[in-house]
Structure formats: structure tokens, C-alpha cells
Specification:
This protein is of the alpha/beta class and 232 residues long. 47% of the residues lie in helices and 12% in strands. A five-stranded parallel β-sheet has the order 2-1-3-4-5, sandwiched between helices. The chain is globular and about 50 Å long. The chain starts with 12 loop residues before the first strand and ends in an 8-residue tail after the last helix.
Length: 232
């Protein structure tokens, strides 16, 4: 998958790694530093440190642990993205483990563009960084299912108004529904019998019209507005 607005056009991807465990930080730093086209711009020991360093280092991707002292990863993600001068960067990639399902929904609401497991292989980590840096979201169907489960258990207190989607055409609305169901661009194209470039154009327009950062936020919006319902 590719996207717009990222640094993938021959530019080095600058990463900030945030985790309170030195072993995790150093391990991820070593894996990323060995990859051409990726640079580890810095390492932060907690959320507050990440906020300070993101302001100073201007990274393209922030790898962010969830559970940390001083300030957790969710609050740090909110602060970093709220202060960003460029709506397309940085992108936040959450570091997670299988037992953190309860954080999936809140992480997406905070603006995270995807998730990567702490025990990810080098290839998986590099792929995740490149995908979000290119402007896309690392939101596999398995993560979408976790999002749906989390949404069912604790929906937002104040859902967005369905009228917010009135700016979309009927075809764009169809595409948004399929995105929320966890379909890839290829699956959307096959389902609607349209070309891949047409699908990408629809998604780009959906994000622009709704003022969304990426595919992950589109999924959240679809559920918050009631366009898609868990189990629907």
C-alpha cells in the first residue's frame, strides 16, 4: 500500500523510538538503523520525553509504547499530533503486545496510524515504519476486528453526527464502509468492480473531505457516525 504526504519519495525516514524499557528501545533502534533509508533520530524514555523530542527533532514516524511512566503513549500521541505543523507528519506507530486490546480504539482516536508488536521481526518493523511514513495506515483486518470488539464494549460517550458524512458521494460512502470492514484497496476494487487507481482516488477524497489523517481515522469515523455498526 502507498499513500500521499509521506517521506517515501527518496527521502530518509526519521524515527523517534519511545519506550521506558532500554532493551526495547535499543533493539528497535538497531533494527531500524541497519535499514537504508531509515534513520533513528532519537530515543525517548517516556511520553513527556517523546513530546519534547518530537518538537525538537521533527521526526516522520514516532514509535510509541502505550504503558509508560510520567505520561502514557496515548496522551503523548495526542500532544505530538495536536502540535504538529504538518497534518501529514509525524505519524504515530503504537508499540503493543497481544494483551493490550483495550487500547486499540483509544490509540486510533488519539491519532495513531497503526500498530506493531514488540516482538515483531525486523522485516515486520521496517514494513510498518515505511507504510505509515508513506501516508498510509497499518490497519490489518485483524486490527479492525479488535477495534470493532473494543467499540462494542465501550462506545464513545459523544458520537459524531451522521450528517458529517453528507459531503461524501454515494460511491465514496460505499468505499468508506468497505474500509471500515477491514478491506484492502485490492479487495475494495474487486468488490466494487473499479480500478485500483480509482479506489485510491476515492480514499484520498474521503480523507480530504472529512479532514482525516489516514485510513485508521476513517475506520473510527465510520463507526462513530453509525455508518457501520459492529456485526453489521
Amino acid at each position: 500500500m502507498t499513500g500521499d504526504g509521506g517521506p517515501a519519495n527518496g527521502r530518509v525516514i526519521r524515527c523517534l523510538i519511545t519506550d521506558d524499557q532500554a532493551m526495547v528501545r535499543e533493539g528497535f533502534a538497531a533494527m531500524l538503523a541497519a535499514e537504508p533509508g531509515i534513520m533513528v533520530a532519537g530515543q525517548a524514555v517516556d511520553g513527556a520525553d517523546a513530546v519534547r523530542q518530537a518538537r525538537r527533532l521533527d521526526p516522520d514516524v514516532v514509535l510509541m509504547d502505550v504503558r509508560m511512566p510520567v505520561m502514557d503513549g496515548l496522551e503523548a500521541a495526542r500532544e505530538i499530533l495536536a502540535a504538529a505543523a504538518d497534518p501529514g507528519r509525524p505519524r504515530v506507530l503504537m508499540l503493543t503486545t497481544f494483551d493490550l486490546d483495550e487500547y486499540v480504539y483509544e490509540a486510533l482516536r488519539a491519532g495513531a496510524s497503526g500498530f506493531v508488536l514488540k516482538d515483531a521481526t525486523t522485516a515486520e518493523l521496517i514494513h510498518a515504519v515505511k507504510v505509515v511514513a508513506a501516508g498510509d495506515a497499518l490497519l490489518a483486518p485483524s486490527v479492525t476486528r479488535r477495534l470493532i470488539t473494543d467499540f462494542t464494549r465501550k462506545p464513545p460517550a459523544v458520537p459524531a453526527a451522521p450528517a458529517a458524512l453528507d459531503v461524501l458521494t454515494s460511491r465514496e460512502t460505499e468505499v468508506l464502509v468497505l474500509i471500515a470492514q477491514g478491506m484492502s484497496n485490492t479487495q475494495i476494487s474487486d468488490t466494487l468492480c473499479i480500478a485500483g487507481e480509482t479506489t485510491r482516488t476515492h480514499i484520498k477524497r474521503i480523507l480530504a473531505k472529512l479532514g482525516l489523517r489516514d485510513r485508521a481515522q476513517a475506520v473510527v469515523t465510520a463507526y462513530e457516525t453509525g455508518l457501520v455498526t459492529p456485526g453489521g
